[in-house]
Amino acid sequence: MTTIGQALASAREEAGCSVQRLHETTRISGTVIRAMERDDFAACGGDFYARGHLRTICRTLGVDAGPLLARFDAEYAEAPAQPRSLAEVSAEGGAAPARAPGAVAGFEADPGDEDATGDEAETGERNEGEDPGEPEGEAATPPGGWLRWAVAAVAIAIAAAVLVWANLGEPEEEAAQVSVRSAGDPAPPDEPRPVQDWEAEQRRAELQAAEAERRAAEAEGDGEVTLHVEVRESTWASVYDGDGDALFAGILDEGESRDWTAPGRLRLHLGDAGSVRLRVNGEDLGVPGDSGEVARLTFDARDPGRG
């Protein structure tokens, strides 16, 4: 069965898009793209970023990301995907729900606000029918309780801003800065977190992604792949290097032998897998498939036996 990486590589090649061109379009590192096409998602820096890269690449190549994301969650993810947040929906063009009347300075309206206001209105109506001679101390609370809630919410917001500023030790304008997220970026988690926690986690993720990219680049430069093909019966074939550039495309004639070498990785497409015999970096892999079977094979310098 075709892996996620093979599906991405096949979609990119069918679109006539090289790794460099896909990098320039998506701004995803070419090293990370190549690692994903080898089903090495550690280079993405975590499940959160791997899902975002999958969505971006699929959208660029015109491929439905749903099946690939489902397979990623089932086969690779360390934790299940979180539900898409309100911030992601808004960034993609959806309208955020209207804020409750009592919401002030980023706080949600207390569920009891509406009831309190309604109670006060009802109390006010009862006051109009009460005997004006009743003692003042027994009269119901006059309307306008919402103002007290608003003042309290503003006070809480000011106190929270002071605490954040004190904890961060940064200028007030930086503490109050709002992060703007574009539609192409991965969605933030559903649960809101303190600013310092989010920034620290983001820095850790960036460091992890950079380290993974460095390791992937080192691994990719570990050696070359040499493919030797012995043709038993004529067949159509094409050979691509790790950057997606075509090294050969045409007919291999019966009795012919061909060799190709490239750094890091080679990809071979065969119209008849049973018509050839393969050797990679000196290792005899035999006949890669049955007669008449179409095969798409990838050979890595670190694991030449994997096709």
What does the model show?
It comes from Actinorugispora endophytica. One of its GO terms (molecular function) is DNA binding. It contains ten helices and eight strands. The protein is an alpha+beta fold. It has three domains: 4-84, lambda repressor-like DNA-binding domains (434 Repressor (Amino-terminal Domain), Orthogonal Bundle), CATH 1.10.260.40; 94-182, no CATH class; 224-300. The strands form two sheets. It has a four-stranded antiparallel sheet with strand order 4-1-6-7, with no helix packed on it. Strands 3-2-5-8 form a four-stranded antiparallel sheet, with no helix packed on it. Helix 4 (47-61) runs antiparallel to helix 5 (65-75). The chain is elongated.
> Order of helices and strands, N to C?
HHHHHHHHHHEEEEEEEE
Which blocks of ≥5 consecutive residues have pLDDT under 50? 86-143, 169-184
Main sheet record: 4 strands, antiparallel
Task: Find the count of extended strands (DSSP E, 2+ residues).
Answer: 8
The dominant shape is elongated
Instruction: Kindly report the oligomeric state of this protein.
Output: single chain
Span between termini: 12 Å
Tell me the domain tally: 3
Fraction of residues in helices?
40-55%
Structural class: alpha+beta
Number of helices: 10
What spatial order of strands do you see in the largest sheet? 4-1-6-7
* Gyration radius over CA: 31 Å
Proportion of beta-strand residues: 15-25%
- Average pLDDT over all residues: 74
GO molecular function: DNA binding
InterPro entries: Bact_Cytoskel_RodZ, Lambda_DNA-bd_dom_sf, RodZ-like_C
Protein name: Helix-turn-helix protein
